[in-house]
Amino acid sequence: MASIVFYDIAHKPPVSESCCSPNPWKTRLALNFKGVQYSTSWVGMPDISKVRQGLGQPASRKFANGSDFYTLPVIQDTATNVTVGDSFDIAVYLQRTYPDSGGGDLFPAQTLDYTFVSSYEIPIPLSKRDDGGFPEYARFNTNIDAAFSAHVQLMVEGIPLDPATIDQTKAEFVRRAGVSSWDDFILTREAREKLMESFQSTLGDLAKLFLQNSDGPFLLGQKASYADFIVGAWLRMAQVTLPKQEWEEVRCWHGSVFGQLHDALDVYAGIK
């Protein structure tokens, strides 16, 4: 019997095919890597605040106006009676609680020398967190989140929203981003091309880090770590939400390093 309940965001049915939220994907990849027994509880976007608060988890982020931003993932471990509500904190918890399970160390020592600097405004608030004793990984997580979030407008229009709650969900996205309407997310062709060029350049700097180890496809060669899951989770979102042609472009950029990473992580991408 599964001891961990993993709360993920439900999108368009079937939810196992449409799940694309990056932070829950970080957790799924980490859970599967660790080989721990768990089950997924799917939560529609309009119910996230209620469910998270019901689990006793405060908001992990704040909007620009200071109001609480409730989101997922959350895990509830019935074996230890512990509930954790941030993807990075969840990975740290799994490593501390189940150090030798599955693939072993989620946080092997490595230098993650990547910093994202851009003039693009980040459209969604990022979590502020303790480094959990893994400062290289925490810093890398923050920079990767910023890099992809700066280009997330490429993906918003393609999020597979649940038709049953589409109006509520769009209103929530509008509120989170602080824009006036859903139409503000829609890019013109010219603006989209410009943002894709920026995305390619941003991933080029990141690709250099992956290319330092020619054994690939992971940063440490053949051994996956939580750093690979951080990037891979965003690639899962891109795969679901980008138009097919654009996703194929992303896969092929920079010597296909990100397409290779995405495919190599399939072994940890099973949905339970």
From TrEMBL:
SUPFAM superfamilies: GST C-terminal domain-like (SSF47616), Thioredoxin-like (SSF52833). Transmembrane segments: none annotated. CDD domains: GST_C_family, GST_N_etherase_LigE. Residues 11-102 form the GST N-terminal domain. This is GST N-terminal domain-containing protein. InterPro entries: Glutathione-S-Trfase_C_sf, Glutathione_S-Trfase_N, GST_UstS-like_C, Thioredoxin-like_sf. It comes from Trichoderma asperellum (strain ATCC 204424 / CBS 433.97 / NBRC 101777). It holds the Pfam family GST_C_7.
